[in-house]
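Minutes, methods subgroup
Present: GH (chair), OT, SY

1. OT presented the first of two proteins processed in the latest run. Sequence and structure tokens recorded below as shown on screen.
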Amino acid sequence: MIIAAAQRNPGFLSRFLQGWRGELGINQLAFLLNIPTVVILVLLIAYPLGYAFYLSIHEVTISTLRSGETPFVGLKNYITVLQDPLFLTTLGRTLVMGLLSVFLMLAIGLFVAMGMNMEHARISYVTRALVLMPWAVPPIANGLMWSFIFNSRYGHLNSTLYSLGFIDHFIRFLSDPTLAFMAVIIAYVWRVMPFSALLYHAALAGIPKEVYEAAEVDGANPWQQFWHITLPLLRPVTAVLLILRTAFALMIFDEVFALTSGGPGDSTWTAAWYSYWTSFRLIRFDTGSAAAFILAVVIGIFAWVYIKFVYRRMGE
């Protein structure tokens, strides 16, 4: 009714809000208007997080679920996870995979953004049309697509390399630990690269052309312009990308699930995959939740370091 009345009489909504503001006050009105958002956030974020933390400090196994009793164990599950050599190995591999993925995403994203920013090159129109396509692919579908590409029997990559004469036999990309590790990184970077490309493209478009013209007059070549003008002016955007994409890269799961399922062996296990496997394959929701919270702490530490030492320095 209120929306319909506001459409018929544009001044109705402002008079309605002014009346409520006069009776409740601006703070009370703001609180009432934010109640639906707060309720949604509590139901979708706060409650699952709280319940996961509850699981992490209780014993939750098949036997306890059957009996309906989940005894309190404190930090026992966290200690168990931290003493597991597999988790420590997995966590280290996650850090390597995440940092390498972020570096590749930034480098390729900047290269693509510079191509998109070229006004007189026809390729710019192609990149603008294609750059959003990887981002539109769901993560699981992306992993399945790359599994077909890397397949050792009928994979498109093997077929292409064989047809061009680069190999004389098909390579088992997903059966070799090193190649499978790189395959997961390639699939993940391909999916998330458009995010950095779009941000870099927007930042490049905001750099005044006069700066480059002045540098060219002073005799700076393209490489010097890129190193001394472009990169310094892109530092704030780079800092934001580092904070956001590192957090997401350390949580990589979908590509591992669809592409390798953690194999061969445990060569592509990530911390998120360890939490999933422990919770839903071993039915140990307690240690699985503890592993997830340990990963969250690691991500929080990275975010704090970036904000304190990288973001502020790059923003100066």
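2. SY then presented the second protein from the same run.
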Amino acid sequence: MKISFEKYPIDIIICILWSVILLPIGLLDIESSIRTILGLPFILFIPGYVLVFALFPSRKTDRGIDVIERIALSFGLSIAVVPLIGLGLNYTPWGIRLEPILLSIFIFIVTIGIIGIYRWFKTNMEERFVIKADVSFPKSENKVDRILTVILIITIIIAMVALIYVIVTPKVGEKFTEFYVLGPKGVADDYPQDLLLEENGTVIIGVVNHEYKTFNYTIEIWLINQSQTYNETTKQNETVYNHMWFFDKFTVSLKHVPINIEESWKPQWEKNYTFSVNRRGDFKLAFLLFSQETEAYNKNFDYKNIAKEKIESAYRNLHLWLNVE
């Protein structure tokens, strides 16, 4: 049984409706799985299909092509047209961003689709290309043509499956952790530097996980008194750790957060940390970040013997210079 649509070009109408449905979903950032399902044909197939339809509104004749050729050309032209649209946008004030690309492809599909519909109606009714629900091979095809057709179909299916897998599978980029210390106003300024004995100082400690897996972070805070000495043998300045006291520690478990350059930066985890120092002198308040749980320390013990090893073993480290009077 064959079902055909001879009065209207139903395939182009579906392509345009598909694009109309996707446009608000893409612009409003609705559920990502729906965007992926609708977006793949919108980028990889529909632009090329409407272009092929506009060029060849006739069925398989001297002026037309068959269904398999249309499908193959549709994928190929889509892969060619979409980058060209992006290249053109690169030289416009809008640039290559989601909204301009989405709108440009939508305008291309609708415009070329309308041209294709116009040419289809201008084509002789007996020669128009129409969609038929018939997957059987034409009897006129010889054995070689059938084999080539099957190979082409299998190739298209494999290419589509591979492409969908590459797009849907999360891409692992550079792995890193953002670790920062801000002043009490939430900016990298106005840090507490000159304090009186046991006067409170406040900073904001922040961590953002871009490691593509959940990390159980440990943040250790140490009060360090150090000096510089010149090594005659190496001809370089070396750091001497005179004292190192354990100050504080806390842990936090954070999931991976993807990097989104299209949106404003947002903190994942921050802590307002208030501290006071009960010793006079010049100190370095060190903030050491570790990617796992660490051992317990005594606040009254001087760990100067392990200071260098401790600092070098930290995943990330930051510090503030303090003068306490």
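Chair's summary of item 2: The radius of gyration is 32 Å.
Next meeting: continue with the remaining queue.
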